[in-house]
Structure formats: C-alpha cells, structure tokens
Amino acid sequence: MRKYRQGVIHKKPQEEYSFAEADDRVYDIFRNHDFGDYPHSQRHELVKFYQLLMQNQKSQNFTRLTTLREVAIKHFIDCLMITRLTKLEFPLLDMGTGPGFPGIPLKIHFPDDRLILAEGVQKRVEFLKLVRDELKLTSLDIIGRYVNEEFSYPVQSVITRAVESAEASIANVMVCLNLGGSLVLMKGPNCQHEIEPALKRWGEYFRLEKNTAYTLPKTSHERTLLVFRKYKSLAPQSLVTSTVRS
C-alpha cells in the first residue's frame, strides 16, 4: 500500500514477521549470499533493527526498500561488504546517515568502536536515538545536523552512501577529518566521472587510495568503493576562499 504525501511515494512494509521468522529468513539470505559465517548475535541485532525500521516505516518514509530480502541484501549486506574491502578507522563518522545506513549495521559489526551518525532530518534523528536505546548501542553519538564545510567534529574516518559528488563530499569533510584520515564513499557503478574533478580541486590535500568495483555476492548489484586519504590540511582562510569560489 502506498501513500502520496507532498509528492513523495510512501511505501509501507509488505510483510510482517515475528523475530524468529525474520531471523530465520535473514540467516538464509546471508547464507545464500556468502555471509553464512556472520555471527548469530550480530545478525540478531540486525533483525531487531529491521523490525524497528519497518515499524516506523508505517508512519515515516525512511526507505524505498520494504521487503525483508531487499533490506537484508541492499542495506545490510551492502553495508557489511565495506568491512571486507577496506579497513575502517575510528572514530568513524557516517555523513548523512538517513535512518542509519551504513552507520547502524557498522556499529553492530564494531560494537566497541566509536561511531558518529550525522543526519539533518529531525524525524530520522529521533528514529536513530530510538534504535540506539532499543539495541543498547554504546559509543554511538548522534548529531542532528548536516555535515558541511563548517562541521568541525574531529574524526579519523568518514563514510557515506549519500548521492553527492566526490568533490562535494571532500569539501564537506575538509575540516572535521583528521590529517591522515580517510573518506570512504559507497558509490554505484557509474561514478568514475567524479574522480577527475574531485582531484582537480582537492588533489593538493587528498589522494585517491582505492577505486574498487565489485558486486554484492551472488547478485547483479554493482557497486564502487572510493577511498580518499587526507595528507595535507587546508588553511582556514583557504577554506573560506574555496567555499566562496565554489
């Protein structure tokens, strides 16, 4: 069932499962997509997150993916694949996390490491706080604002599934990302055109460390991982000039 509200298609969950049913189905999906060895305890937390997401999807428009299979593959496995492709550094900022992707699955995967979720939409912020409380997630900060050139919360790494360009993403983390830190961009298959303008503008300060094309296991869903490493800080006056020029 769909609702139209302010021009947005609002998809409601197509199914409701008990925890045991959902857990069994996620286990099967993970096993069939090369995640059969994923720890049971952490999978249980992902299932709890799925249930909270679907319960709130009934009244909020958090995700266009509303079947358990879609969420398990295109949200959970999509997020967890990053841990196989690159080493994440902490504290880690999820820039524009939305309802918690990739931040919540990564927090479940790294329960003892510090993560920061930044989100500018208030209803999503309240949902993230609910998830943190219900799942009893520790070392998880939630910041209710967008990340931009003035964002100064110091972190060692930034990750995002946001749709903005690589050039814009680098600009937004220039101040908050520590020297030597990494910017991890989860992209679709058609992002190669973003690299040249990003390095043309920011190549004095960032190097492209990884450019990895891959597919989600046993699917046709193509992805690209871009990792930029910061090796030089931008002087405050230079940042002001650059921002004005852009």
Q: What is the string of helix and strand elements? A: EEHHHHEHEHEEHEHEEH
User: Largest sheet, if any?
Assistant: 7 strands, mixed
Q: For the CA atoms, what is the radius of gyration?
A: 18 Å
Count every helix, treating DSSP H or I runs of 4 or more residues as helices.
9
> What is the overall pLDDT average?
91
Number of strands: 9
Cα(first) to Cα(last) distance is 43 Å
* Beta content: 15-25%
Structural class of the secondary structure composition?
Answer: alpha/beta
Secondary structure layout plus pairing:
Layout: E1 2-5, E2 8-11, H1 19-32, H2 40-57, H3 68-80, H4 82-85, E3 92-95, H5 103-109, E4 115-118, H6 122-135, E5 140-143, E6 155-160, H7 166-173, E7 177-187, H8 195-202, E8 206-215, E9 222-230, H9 236-245
Helix pairs in contact: 1-2, 1-3, 2-5, 7-8
